[in-house]
Prior knowledge:
By secondary structure, the chain is α+β, with helices and mostly antiparallel strands. It has helices spanning 2-50, 87-111, 131-148, and strands at residues 58-61, 66-69, 114-121, 158-164, 184-191.
Amino acid sequence: MTSLFFIMLVLFILTVVFLKREQKKLEAERGSFQIKAEQFDKITEIEESINQIDKTFFSYDPENKKHILNLQIRFASESYSMSDVPYATQSKLREVGRIISNFVKDAHEKNKIKYMLIIEGQASLDDYPLNYELSYSRALSLYRFWEEAQINFDPNSCEVIISGSGTGGVPRVKPDTSAENQRFLIHIIPKTGIVK
Length: 196
């Protein structure tokens, strides 16, 4: 009888130790799930913030997974001068610059989200040998246009990238020789870093 009691006592102690160990594992997993849920909430918050951009000037392109400027900007062939852009369009571009600047500033203040603003110049597929340089110059002309209009982007909340994709880049208007590809695109990308 004493042996049976001793065996039962040992089994009871082993069960308690095993259950405590399992409880600690579950608590650690629950903490991990809590962190993952918080990360998911932060990612959702970032996605929702970019969807708050002004729909007057931007629309979401699901095929290319990016917000695209709705304004049709067409430079003359082999030109990158903003003086080629009609005055009414220049006024809208100033408004777009202010909207982006305010959007990025507000999103950073509210949610501590930083953004990358890419101004991408494009060129039509033709025989011009300097299409990549031309596309870069188109993007740079918009950036300088905004600087002259006192539209600035705080480097603490927005990194500005000037790029030229030449006859590459997406989206492209077909046929690719179209003058509609003699333009620039504006991309606003949240910089998530490590989501905590």
